[in-house]
Amino acid sequence: MIKVENAQNIILENIETLEAEKVDLLKALSKVLAEDIHSDINIPPFDNSAMDGFALKSSDTKGASQQNPIILKIIENLPAGKTPKNTIHKGEATRIMTGAPMPLGGDGVIMVEYTESTNNEVKIYKAVSSGKNIRLAGEDVKKKELVLKKGSLITPAKIGMLASVGKEMVKVIRTPKIAILTTGDELVELGEKVTPGKIRNSNTYTLISQITKLGAIPVNIGIACDNIEEIRNKIRSGIQYDMLITSGGISVGDYDLIQDILKEAGLNLKFWKVRVKPGKPILFGLLNNKPVFSLPGYPVSSMIAFELFVRPAILKMLGRKDIFRKTILATLTNSIDKKTDRRQCLMGILKEVKGGYEVSSTLPQEAGMLKSMTLANCLILAPQECAHIHHGTLVKVILLNDKE
Amino acid sequence: MIKVENAQNIILENIETLEAEKVDLLKALSKVLAEDIHSDINIPPFDNSAMDGFALKSSDTKGASQQNPIILKIIENLPAGKTPKNTIHKGEATRIMTGAPMPLGGDGVIMVEYTESTNNEVKIYKAVSSGKNIRLAGEDVKKKELVLKKGSLITPAKIGMLASVGKEMVKVIRTPKIAILTTGDELVELGEKVTPGKIRNSNTYTLISQITKLGAIPVNIGIACDNIEEIRNKIRSGIQYDMLITSGGISVGDYDLIQDILKEAGLNLKFWKVRVKPGKPILFGLLNNKPVFSLPGYPVSSMIAFELFVRPAILKMLGRKDIFRKTILATLTNSIDKKTDRRQCLMGILKEVKGGYEVSSTLPQEAGMLKSMTLANCLILAPQECAHIHHGTLVKVILLNDKE
User: Which is nearest to B114 in space by CA: B186, B198, B172, B56?
Assistant: First the structure.
């Protein structure tokens, strides 16, 4: 058995970020950019008015005030999207809307609020300095400037920037397809009757949801009964995807079967069993150079093993840098007794309190208690070496159910 | 002009959570549950073994030890998914796998690790107490128990619970479709050439991304030039969706046109302009009882106005309870000078430091600076009444780009 960190390191050493692909701009949201982006234009492309008002020569407005307005002749009306036809000479002004290009001869814009105008003339009630209310060409972005870096996560603002520089197609890291193979003679599907000795399949749905939330694509290979030929075929079809996860009924016995079949198929086993509770009986290896995880069948064990081991693997494939969740510190409101042979992840309820966080682990903690997992909002990470963690101790916590 | 909080209150007062609809289980992820869920079965449905080992009568194991094992006769092999055929009598044991139903007559399970067995016999090296390693029927969930409450956000664990209670279809709050109408003669689409006086449309793509991240469905109505008939037709088609957002080129002048057309169409105007920079020129009203927002055209103003006003509206429609983002406190590392006529939202860069957070607002803050928005990871909320905020002050910050 190896430690959690060792297992995580082995996983990350054996997993590569996927290759890039070109996608439509809007498909790039929340993916990782796989190219540096340089602007093909100045943004804004031309000097333009930052306000609705009048473009003019600032020198014409010297001394203008409420009591002593200066009168200029309006030579043109310029909405956004139109180009100016006339040059502004001394004593002249162009009515201009926000975003419209600055006419030649003008070097400042006065806001409409400080003017009064007829069709032909405008009274200017305030002096304007040169450059006032003008957005200069290239003020936001210069032509050829590096605007977005390879490797960054594409946010809504970055989608806007990609649009601004005309990228209809964007190179991003390809999204992995994750095959899920569920095993166990005891499992029945949702539509079926729960006959004696059977339980409903829930792990497949939880895993599909966990994968979906990470932005990867789950592929449900279905349930294989504990039958060698059936499992063999399903593994063969699952390993065509970018990763294969097998979820093992609720029996540790099942695993041995799966492990045997995976080995026979040529699995390069990297580890089997990790010093953590729950989630210990997890297998990781490579088959045809594709990562394979076999997860324990208890619902809580499956979720936590996914959280600790599969999630970082998928995020690395996606090219993400934020591979591990942030931990926060919270004050434990009950006491915890545990064995010292392994790390323990306890389902916790975290509350914000004045000055920090409080967390309790009073939910039933057995690996079969899916109800606790629906109520938990965090996992408490209890170190291997501690047998007893006192009420009032600061403990490390990772938030669940936050948004991937 | 009204204050930000007033505007937000008016929006929430005028927006209803959408009605419920039935969707396939996996479509329910990240939506809000619109029914109480009771379990149709006990989970687990029957007493079963929590371990791989041997089911037996605990009284038979009294005094068993490494030196003094007790030998029992194996009467049956019981994998998960099979039902026991034989009752365990004194001196007998059933080989049992995790999850398999407890045979009649057995009241405890010994882990395989504490045994040694042939086909017919098993040596027991440790005494077992009654009930040991047995998961009782209904231990996680009792039949008819309320397992999930109406109004809760559906997480992966809750999808697992819904599967466990056999819900193939789930009642959730319907997902709003949000129409986006972009206006402005100066806008060209991504594939088009940026001719003099024109700029590329970016707001539509940013808005689509912001809406997508909230889990709502954006519908792009396209660009309407500043032409009354065209805008009128597009508004008519946009208002058929659950919400209409108009995005106004970059000209304040455009708004007046949109506002006039909206009013002519019967808009019940709720407010126009809010005391906030950037994002001030925002309109909210109801048309055919559907919420309508007109957002400013500068890219930063548009994003921040969406963040402050449209986001809470969409989340309320989705039935979410976490309508406003959490604010955190961070130490300002530069100084801020502002006008006292309104709240200011500054694009900030937040860093975690020992004992808390530091934030700077040194990015260019003009409303046209989309590049700053791609670099910012938070918004600093500067109160209306402050003209100067000193370096070292604790300021309120909301995190952007975290996952919705």
Answer: B56
Rounded CA-CA distance B73/B93 in Å is 6
What pLDDT does A402 receive? 64
User: Whole-angstrom Cα distance, residue A125 to residue A123?
Assistant: 6
pLDDT 10s digits, A49-77: 999 999 999 999 999 999 999 999 999 99
Q: How far is B299 from chain A (nearest CA, A)?
A: 8
pLDDT value of residue A255: 53
CA atoms within 13 A on the CB side of A215: 26
**If you search the block for the tokens 């682990």, which residue do you land on?**
A361
Question: How many inter-chain contacts (A to B, CB under 8 Å) are there?
Answer: 295
Q: What is residue A404's predicted lDDT score, i.e. its pLDDT? A: 40
The token pair at A150 is: 């390879």
Are B159 and A205 within 8 A, CB to CB? yes
Cis peptide before A176 (omega within 30 of 0): no
Q: Tell me whether residues B45 and A370 touch, CB distance under 8 A.
A: no
Whether residues B215 and B253 fall in one domain: yes
* Structural domain for B158, as ranges: 22-40+145-173
A37: domain CATH number is: 3.90.105.10
CB distance A252 to A318 below 8 Å: no
In a domain, A269, yes or no: yes
Distance from C-alpha of A78 to C-alpha of A69, rounded to nearest angstrom: 23
- Kindly state whether residue A348 falls inside one of the protein's structural domains: yes
Note the helical H segments in A214-343.
228-238, 252-264, 299-305, 311-317
Residues near A341 by beta carbon (within 8 Å), at least 6 away in sequence = A275, A384
User: Which domain-ending residue is among A296, A317, A338?
Assistant: A317
Min CA distance, B61 vs chain A (Å)? 24
Domain count, chain B: 4
For residue range A243-268, list pLDDT tens digits in order: 999 998 545 555 568 888 999 999 99
Contact B157 A82 (CB under 8 A): no
- Contact between B211 and B241 under an 8 Å Cβ cutoff? The reply is no
Please indicate, yes or no, whether residues B197 and B160 belong to a single structural domain of this protein.
no
By the 8 A CB rule, do B180 and B52 touch?
no
Sign of the Cα torsion A124, A129, A132, A136 reads positive
| B371's tokens | 């590049």
Decide if B370 and A252 are in contact by the 8 Å CB cutoff: no
pLDDT tens, residue by residue, A148-170: 999 999 999 999 999 999 999 99
Q: Residue A339: which CATH number?
A: 2.40.340.10
Indicate whether A355 pLDDT > 80: yes
- Test A191 with B168 for CB contact under 8 angstroms: yes
Q: Among A282, A258, A259, which Cα is nearest to A272's?
A: A282
Rg (CA), chain A: 32
Looking at the fold, whether B150 and B180 belong to one and the same domain comes out as no
Of A81, A208, A374, the CB nearest to B184: A81
Decide: helix, strand or coil at residue B176: coil
- Cβ neighbours of A81 in B, within 8 Å: 184-187, 197-198, 226, 249
Q: Is the ipTM of this complex over 0.90?
A: yes
Does the residue B322 lie in any domain?
A: no
CB contact under 8 A, A25 and B190: yes
Domain co-membership, B28 together with B168: yes
User: Residue B254: its chain A contacts at CB < 8 A?
Assistant: 80
Residue A67: half-sphere exposure toward Cβ, Cα within 13 Å: 1
Q: Within chain B, which residues score under 70 in pLDDT?
A: 249-256, 402-404
Residue B140, in any domain of the structure: no
For B140, the closest of A185, A201, A368 (CB atoms) is A368
> Where in B213-310 does DSSP place strands (E)?
217-224, 243-248, 268-272, 276-277, 283-287, 290-295
CA-to-CA distance for A320 and A33, rounded, in angstroms? 10
